[in-house]
Amino acid sequence: MFCSINFKMPGLLPLTRRFAATSPTRGEVIPCALRYLSPCGRGRHAQSVWRVRGIVIVRGAVGPTKQSSLIKYFLSLALFATPSSLYGKETLTLYTHSAFVSSSYGPGGHLKEAFEKTCECEIQYIVLDTIPLVINRVNFEGDQTKADVILGLEDIGLDVTHVDKLVPYASHCLAFVYDSTKIPNPPKTLDELIDSSYPIILQDPRSSITGLGFLVWMKKAYGDNAPQKWKTLAAHVLTFTKGWTEAHALFKQGAAPIVFSYTTDGLFNELEKEMPHLKALHFAEGHLCSNIYAGKLKTTHHSRLVDQFLNFLLTPEAQYLIAIQGWIYPKGDVPDAWKKAENYSHQPSWISYTSEEVKDSQRAWIQEWVEGLIQ
Amino acid sequence: MNYISYVFWFTLKQAGLSTLFTIPLAVLIARAIVWNQGWWPARFCLKLLGLPLITPALVGILGFITLMGGLFNIYSLPGIVAVHVVFYSPWIALLLVNAWRLIPEEHYRLASQLHFSSKQTFYFIEWPQLRKSFAEVAWICFCFSLNSFTAIMVLGGGPQKTTLSASLYHSLFFFYDFEQVTWFVSLQLILTLSLAALTILLKTQPQGVSLKKPSFPNLKDSSQKPFVWVGLGLICLPLAVILGPSLTALSLTLQNPLVWQALKKSLMLAICFGSLSAVISLFFVVSGWRSLKYLASFHFLFPSTLLGVLLFLFSLKIPSLPQEFFLGVMQVLLILPFTFLLLERSYHTLEATYGTTTRSLGLSSFQKFSLIQWPLLKKPFATALGLGCALSAGDFPSLAFFSNPDSPGLSSLFYQQMGRHFEKCMGTALILLLLCYFLYQLPHWILRTHDRTSAA
């Protein structure tokens, strides 16, 4: 059963609404359980502020589920849905971002398949565009949330208000990705890059978590000198985009030879996209890296199953899937295919920072950044 | 300087620079057209000058990016100014050609008897007559650039390159900085009000068109012909460069069900809101609420983002109303001035020509409308209807505020694709462009307007 989720809110929460409005998951086909979608589509969760409408895709044909048509509803149930509740299966609801589950990308689908073999249960993903959105939504739903686990939490922007337990299951490092056909002798340190004149695409730290990551990186690397360094860098920044996706689209168009992204982009471009000339810059002095966590919600009713899932995430099988499909560093060994790749290099050393520190100083740092740039 | 005053300053700076470059270019194009009336490219160029108005701004910007992308950094102040120059100069040239028509033919005859050179004619005859019009169009161009939203959304970015309109939108929807939103809204409001005050003070709202059917003197100056080509280039090149790639991408785009959904939605909304604006304008014009003309002629002052924010706040207060309602209100309010002014101008001529006759015949108002006014207003009404529908289909600011995530309109889908999957957006661009041109022509076909009524 395939369905796609569109989020529509009745206008109570402008923030979340706007996030949902720009969600790339719209129209994307993602595997999830009909059981969740149908009751929502039927409006039984009227007390919930979120309304979820499913587009059921059967044999490639797309059509919105007619909420008014009772017959179609029962038909679809009878024909296609596995009424898992009848078998007494437990359902694990995972909130995550589109990098984890989408039609063409992410380990989510494979993990679901692998885990469901080991338990009498069913996994359903609720996918939002980005992790800040997921956090926003959980905070908004509060105790009423249906989420059992949040997948994809990072050290930057970490919010543990509703989280009981954090399990780091992977990590990633931010890096500049460049086109080696345009830059034969790439900069070797952050300093060299800042002093170079290559056009760079960055993300706006006010709206993007990657952009915020680089802001933290600059602050950690240069401390009080950061504004001056920003000034030098900004002279050859092509533009600050709203988010990572926009930056990546501009880079793919060839608008600039360098974009701010992740260290594993080089691997992805080589192994998946057959574009080995798009490589990541590795700086010896270290990168801004972050653990990626699965967070168990305080309000979950499936505590035992959640623990089972969290343990499963750390098994070699799951770790392999996370690395090979999600393009982030697993907690154990990296896949052999990576080691053989031309663009592979060891995980860089980590610049030290804490998520509390980022949370506390974020506002001040952004203020400093804005004012530094416009002077 | 703090951030807010920087944004204010940047807004003024880019608008000033845009005006500075647009006006001379527009003057050169307009003059080249007027001076080469008999030459077919000039006549063709004159016909096309209005095209940028119904071309969706986003498609134009895509063309601009494709055209200029390799030449210099377009994501910068020069890029923003250049895109304004490319878009506004043909349209400003159109306003200027209309102003040129007010120069009495006799002046040119005198000039040719005195063997004035082209430069002398400009200095002694055209400049004194057109000085006021130049100031007017410069003011309009300045205000338009000041409120420019779409260009900044695509080409701006970061704290350095943003205008009041764009940062207002970003703080509201992406940064969640409500203190800044309040600041930007107040600044925008103050700016708009002071511009309105200045407009009244400087008496620069556009003049009415003369009753006399404009006839151009038979002027010839081949040295100006290159500027006709410049004009044609500015209008056609940005569209021509995307034609090839978009035709190749079209087959893929047509397989995307989202595009079809968006097309259907945009078509429906455009026909609804476009005709609504045209009908409301017709009602206002015929029922004699012509004092609205004064209000409508200020349309270039009012920033769409301000309207968007106000309506958005309303929509939060009344969550039971659908987004489409607010989208409709916003679009109708944005389109109304254009359709109203268009109809009002024709009605003005009509009243001056037939007003006394109809009154002396003692026709009832219904008879007057059905026998005299409608046949003559049919063509301008068709144009207003087409313009309304095309503007509604191509409008981006209103969709930026009230886009339904379930089913985006074609322009918001296109904006999304432009930022996320660039390779997909070319096909959508072509569909959007064709939709707007089709909607513009449609009422002419339906109402079967022909040239008999063009005297009105």
Key descriptive features of the protein:
heterodimer, A: 375 residues, D-Maltodextrin-Binding Protein, domain 2, ten-stranded mixed beta sheet, four-stranded antiparallel beta sheet, globular, B: 456 residues, mainly alpha, MetI-like fold, 77% helix, disordered C terminus
Explained architecture:
The complex is a heterodimer of chains A (375) and B (456). By secondary structure, chain A is of the alpha/beta class. Among the domains of chain A are: 1-88, no CATH class; 172-289 and 343-374, Periplasmic binding protein-like II (D-Maltodextrin-Binding Protein, domain 2, 3-Layer(aba) Sandwich). Helices cover 38% and strands 23% of the residues of chain A. Chain A is built from 14 helices and 14 strands. Chain A has helices at residues 14-21, 34-41, 70-79, 108-118, 131-141, 190-195, 209-222, 226-234, 244-253, 265-271, 303-313, 316-326, 336-340, 355-374, and strands spanning 2-8, 30-31, 51-58, 61-64, 90-97, 121-128, 149-154, 163-179, 200-203, 237-241, 258-262, 278-280, 289-297, 329-330. The longest helix of chain A has 20 residues, at 355-374. Chain A is globular and about 60 Å long. Chain B has 456 residues and is mostly helical. Chain B has two domains: 1-245, MetI-like (MetI-like fold, Orthogonal Bundle), CATH 1.10.3720.10; 256-456, MetI-like fold, CATH 1.10.3720. In chain B, helix 1 (3-35) packs across helix 5 and helix 16 (365-394) packs antiparallel against helix 19 (422-446). At the A-B interface, strand 1, helix 1, strand 10, helix 9 and helix 14 of A face helix 9, helix 14 and helix 18 of B.
